Amino acid sequence: MRILEQTPPLRVVRAFGTLVHLHNLSGGVLSGDRLSLDIEVAAGASAQITTTGATRLYRHRAGSIDSMQKTTITVGDGALLEYLPDAIIPYAGSRHTQTTEIALLHNATLFWWETFAPGRQAMGEKFAFERLEITTRVFTVKTPVFLDDFTVNPREKSLDSTARLGGYSHLANFYAFQTGRSPGSWRELENLLNEFAAGASKQTAGSSSIWGASALAADGVIVRGLSHTARDVPATLAGAWSIARRFLTGKDGVLPRKVY
Prior knowledge:
mainly beta; 2 helices; 16 strands
């Protein structure tokens, strides 16, 4: 692993072979922060990147600009990246923008998940943040394959409508991309993931969630889930990742080590 530049508060704190841990030394994202993360996985290389804990978005300070994080990722020819961060937790009064731009070169493979919590529920801060904007762009050498814009303004628009979160509190996404694979194979993987998603969906008093998978027009598939609790989300994401990884690479996934 080569670190070209490393400036606080973001820092690489552990590297176990191809596993890298990212850590925010300040404990969270502060009002006015401008964070940038640039990752390049060279041709033929493999990397797994995770975080040491949840990304905490702190309260906006009057007179300050919104916090922002931009992540730029390039996965080289025949390379593999697994980007498996912990949840984003927006605290009451926070305002944050997250932008992720990913370039996948020839025969590149990417597995990535992300989870969004409603805030510190134990502190009574469910959807008490002011604004959360998430922009995602994934490109191959030929064309954009996934463009997504997600903006939540809980104080201005209720999140209970079907067009938003439909009464659920947690949102999770899992993405699997591999350039150059035939459309038929993506439909096969979509079916496998939907079978898994049906089993993971629950409608009980204590744990209600709904999951589903959809193949993209080319080079990828996405699994999305909504839940009333974070309890089952990590295991469900790991299950979808395991299925997709075995299908696309022929090998089982190994969860990131979180023991220091």
